[in-house]
Amino acid sequence: MRRQWSRATCASSLLPTPSRSTTAFVPADTELAFLAATEQARLVRDKEVSALELAELYLERIERIDPELNSFVTVCGEEALEDARAADASESSGPFHGVPIAVKDLTATKGIRTTYSSRAFADNVPNFDTAVVRRLREAGFIILGKTNTPRSSGPWHSPSQS
Q1: What is d(CA 98, CA 53) in angstroms, rounded to the nearest whole number?
Q2: What is the distance between the alpha carbons of residues 148 and 106, in angstroms, rounded to a whole number?
Q3: Which residues of 102-114 are buried (b: 16+ CB within 10 A; e: fewer)?
Q4: CA distance 86 to 107
Q5: In the beta sheet, which residues pair with residue 145?
Q6: Each residue of 100-144: pLDDT tens digit?
Q7: Among 34, 38, 23, which Cα is nearest to 99's?
């Protein structure tokens, strides 16, 4: 299945910057990318990092690393950047306000191609979110795109014999 990209400019460099606290600082790109979602949410909430910076960081990493990994089926770069700007311009909308996340391609996402890793659904764009995606959005997450999955959620392991 071919990857479908929604490209956007993702050139952001996060360097340690002063904050309201004398002990806090913004981690470098590599550190920031591997922080727990709860810690990223705290940084966004405390305005030590913007949602836009996080989205740009992850989109740049996807563009740089994913050609080798082939983990994304669809990347929603422009949409994620738009959602991040909106998150930065608004009050916190949930515990994970402004934190980027990827969703498995088995999960219907409103307006985002959902293929279930099957050519039969290559052009499927649901007009609804499943409950889990709705809850992710309500919690404030920003959806970066859809990640690969075994076709139609088929077996990804072999049965064991006792």
Answers
A1: 10
A2: 9
A3: bbbbbbbbeebbb
A4: 24
A5: 75, 102
A6: 999 999 999 999 999 988 889 999 999 999 999 999 999 999 999
A7: 38
C-alpha 83/C-alpha 141 separation (Å) is 9
> 88: which residues sit within 8 A by CB, 6+ positions away?
50, 51, 52, 98
Q: Which run of H or of E encompasses 72?
A: strand 72-76
CA distance 102 to 90: 22
Instruction: List beta partners, residue 5.
Output: 75
Q: Which two tokens stand for residue 80?
A: 């994620």
In DSSP terms, which residues pair with 2 in a beta bridge?
none
User: Any idea what the Cα angle at residue 143 is, between residues 4 and 10, rounded to 5°?
Assistant: 65
| Model confidence, pTM | 0.76
Task: Name the packing angle between helices 77-88 and 51-69 (round to 10°).
Answer: 160
